Each structure stands twice: as structure tokens, then as C-alpha cells.
Amino acid sequence: MSGAITLCSGSVVADIGGTNARFAYVGHGGDVLQGIQCFSCRDFGFLVDAIQAYLAYGYLQEVTQICLAVAGPVDRDPIDLPNSHWQVSRQVLEAELGISVKIINDFSAQVLSIGSMSSTELDWIGDVRPDPSSSGVIAVLGPGTGLGVSAMLASGEIVPSEAGHVSFAPQNQHELALLEQLWQRYERVSVERLLSGMGLANLYWANCRLVGQDNELSPQGVSEGAIAGDEVCLKAIRDFSAILGAVAGDVALMMGANSGVYLSGGILPLIKDLIDGDLLRQCFNYKGRFTEVCRRIPVAIVMGEHPGLRGCVQALRLPRDVN
Questions:
Q1: pTM
Q2: What angle, rounded to 10 degrees, do the helices at 197-210 and 173-182 form?
């Protein structure tokens, strides 16, 4: 999928996160990603510089259009990216590049990619599977630099959101104690403060505070510590699993996503073997009077490569605009 050949013309797709910007190209009418490159966002002062650096590889003699998936609301121009130093303007990019530019929300791209996933690219949590004979609403959410959430209606219409910024609601006394610690760090605690790279680090820090320590670790340090058997790191991963399940269940109810909830983002494939799937599913289901409803909803971790780029390719094929 990462090989490249020079084509006369085609389209460039890009998945612009808070940490990395991934680029690829496709030929006209094709959906095979070629020339995949990943840049660190901090290496470029402006998004246009990263795009020009990719175009300089010369994969395409002519770029007819570009589709960017960005981590922020795209219903206005310019677009502010909450987890990035870049500001994005479609008008400015088109003027500077001389190329038609489409911009969609990064999790609109994620939800568009689900239809392209094979059975081997989805790791199901629990025994429930989608009914291939029926169609309905699906939702995708996932932790990365932030927490993205989107949904797709049965009609194919995308419902973008900024649901990663809703308030965190503790489900038990331990989670309430975590929230009380995090209130010392943040005036308002959104679910993104717990379900993201920084969220994993926050959960470790808060659990340390609860046992009289004041230690800090990077997200990678937490996962490495959990693999090594560190008790507090393991607790942070367990809390991450429980809170992710609870929030995913909330999203299912909010969106009416009875046809499936898909967990994506940059972090989960890296820590999948540490995630407590049984606990995640239990917390997903635990919705009081709607527990039976949630028990019937399929839940899977997306393991397929480059879902954001694959979703951009699908967005280019749609006859309508996608937010």
C-alpha cells in the first residue's frame, strides 16, 4: 500500500492530526493509497509548507485535487485546530497551491473508512456482530492527540461532532477521586483530558496522587510501564479501558448508533494488547434502563492501516460536500 509509481495526474489525500500529518496519492477513479509519507507537524510552520514538501516528491505530474482531513470543526474558514499550531484556510491553500482543496473533519474521514475495512481489520469486542441485511447509524470515536467522534446515518450522511469536548462524568467513587485530582490541573475536565495521549498521562498522574506520589510519565512511558507490570501504570490502563467503554456507550446512545460503534485513533492499535476488552464492553453496556439496548450494539477496534487517508479517498468520490 505504501509503494509509489509516477502517474500523470491524480489526487492527494492527507490526514492532519495534532502530532503527525500523513499524505498519500491515488490515481483517478482508484482507491489504492500510494506514496504514503508521514511528517511531524512541528517540523513545519504552516500547513502549506507540509503540503508543498509532499508535492516535491513528484509522485504526480499534475494534482487535480487535494482532500484534507483535519482535527477540528470545518464549517467555517479559516479553521482553528485545537490541538495544533496550524490554522487552516481552504481559500488561502487554493490560492497558494493553485489546486482545488476539499477539507473534512478527521473523524468524518474515519467513519467514511469503515466500509472499506475487511473483517481482518476489525477486532471485535464481545460476541455481537453487525447484521449485514440491515443498515443503520454507526459511530466512530478514538483517542489520539485528542478524542475524535463522528457518526454516519443510514443514508450515508455524515454527522461530524466535537463530542470529545463533552464533560467527563465519573461512574464510581474511584473515577470521582480521579476527577477531583484533575480539577487541580484543569478548570473543566472534558473526556478528551482522559481519552487521548495526554489523557493516559493524566490518568497515571492522578492515580499517583491518590497513593501519595506526584510522578509524571509520557503516554509511551505509561504503556511501557504497564507491560513491565508497574501497578500504577496498569491502573491507568484499566481506567482508560473503563472510561473509553463508558464514553463509547454514551456516544452510541447520543447518536442512535445501533448498527455499530468503532474505536479508532492513533493510540488503540499501539496499546490494544493492554486494553481490558471485557471491562470496556461491561462499561459500554452499563447504561441503566438502556443496558439491554447497548448489549445488542456491535463494538470493534479498528486495526486497519491509514483509516483517515482511506476516508479522504471516499470523500473525493462523494457527489456532495462532507463536513
A1: 0.91
A2: 100
